[in-house]
Amino acid sequence: MLLARRLLPMCERIEMHPAPSFVLPAAMSGLLLFTVFCPFVIAQAEEPPVKLSPVEQSKDGSASVIDPMRSSRLSARDREKLYEQIVRDAEILERQSAQFRRLTQLLRPTVVHIDTKKPALRPKNGKASEDEAGSGVIAKVAGRLVVITNRHVINRAELDNITIRLDDGRELKPIRLWSDAGTDIGVLEITGEDLEPARLDEKDSVQIGDMVLAIGSPFGLSHSVTLGIVSAKGRRDLELGEGGVKFQDFIQTDAAINPGNSGGPLVNLRGDVVGLNTAIASNSGGSEGIGFAIPMPMVLFVARQLVENGVVSRAYLGVTLDRGFSQKMAQRLGMTRAIGARVSGVTKGSPADVAGLVPDDVVLEFDGNAIEDDDHLVSLVSVTPTDRTVSLVVFRQRQRISLKMPVASREQFEVQ
């Protein structure tokens, strides 16, 4: 399991890893309480109050001992009516539960458990190697059948030391491996009979509040399923692993994610994979309701280039961005608040220079996307195909200005 730190003060570290077992989130528990309990309260209100039974007489005519709380107990008839009410309410919830059962049945064959043996970074007790476990999802990418996972699960491992275990117990060896350090994405090409690829969401349709399932191998418990919601999107301020993850745009979820879930899928209620589970914010080493997944559009952008070209080619702007863009600086530039990405420097001859960007420009939109901050702009540029022209909206001298900019490949530009 790869350890990392979180920039938020409440989280001392973030642990890279993978996904879950079937649990009910607190948010839904409240919903169930309302659904089941409220009809009961209403039903009780409609019934006449239960009257005290007359005092029973003993055979000798004296009063017998009675239960003073008898008026608050349900009669046999009342209990039978309540059972009927519960059955009716349960049918509603069971229809919802059936959706999760169908999703699990559909998705489990697309999820794999991954075991790797790799050279130890810090040999202990004479052991020169270490074992690592994670998860992955079978997919069809660029015409090839692959397993998509996290790079940190397979990094430094030889192909012969990677074992992929399917839902039915079969074991496979990958025939080819690619990885991208900038996003922590790894791809393994596989072959075999009756392999089921998952459906991948290419449109980034997931929204905050959507219900999601996380599937993976937490603590080695393969093909475990957990339930939660999307808590947030666009998390980009995480320090992950020893090498770091440069390009971030994480989905945050409260679906239980634990060590071993790394590389497993985050799935919506339609059965589409919306993210690749990657990290957690945790002080204990286990799930504390804050997990992170790479959104599927970013995963596919990287995976396709790895399969087709072996490397990832990213767009290059040629600007230096102000990471400390403050409210005070925004007001000096004539803005009411610090929004967008402030340009503090432009590389001569770069695409940004050709487009006419200058220091103190604030990039408000990139290729039609409103920019939140400098990390957001970096993330969008990282998944922009090269050799195309994009539109920019910048704030300059108290005005919005539209620009066109041909982007170049980072690798090509750096070679020049």
Key structural traits:
416 residues, alpha+beta, Thrombin, subunit H, Pdz3 Domain, 2 domains, six-stranded antiparallel β-barrel, 34% strand, globular
Textual characterization of the structure:
The strands form 4 sheets. The chain has a 7-stranded antiparallel beta sheet with strand order 7-6-3-4-5-9-8. A 6-stranded antiparallel beta barrel has the order 11-12-14-17-16-15. Helices cover 23% and strands 34% of the residues. By secondary structure, the chain is of the alpha+beta class. The chain has helices at 26-46, 76-107, 151-154, 296-309, 327-332, 351-355, 374-382, 410-415, and strands at 2-6, 14-16, 111-124, 127-141, 144-150, 162-165, 171-172, 176-180, 185-189, 199-200, 211-216, 224-235, 238-239, 250-253, 265-268, 272-281, 291-295, 315-316, 319-321, 341-346, 362-366, 369-370, 389-396, 399-406, 408-409. The protein contains 8 helices and 25 strands. A hairpin with a 7-residue loop joins strand 1 and strand 2 (14-16). The chain has 2 domains: 1-28 and 84-123 and 130-311, Thrombin, subunit H, CATH 2.40.10; 315-415, Roll (Pdz3 Domain), CATH 2.30.42. The model is unreliable at 6-15 and 18-47 (pLDDT under 50).
Question: What is the oligomer described by this structure?
Answer: single chain
Largest sheet: 7 strands, antiparallel
Estimated share of beta-strand residues: 25-35%
What Rg, in angstroms, do the CA atoms define?
28 Å
CATH class descriptor name of the largest domain? Mainly Beta
Q: How many domains comprise the coordinates?
A: 2
The helical percent reads: 10-25%
- Pick out the low-confidence regions: 6-15, 18-47
CATH architecture of the largest domain: Beta Barrel
Shape: globular
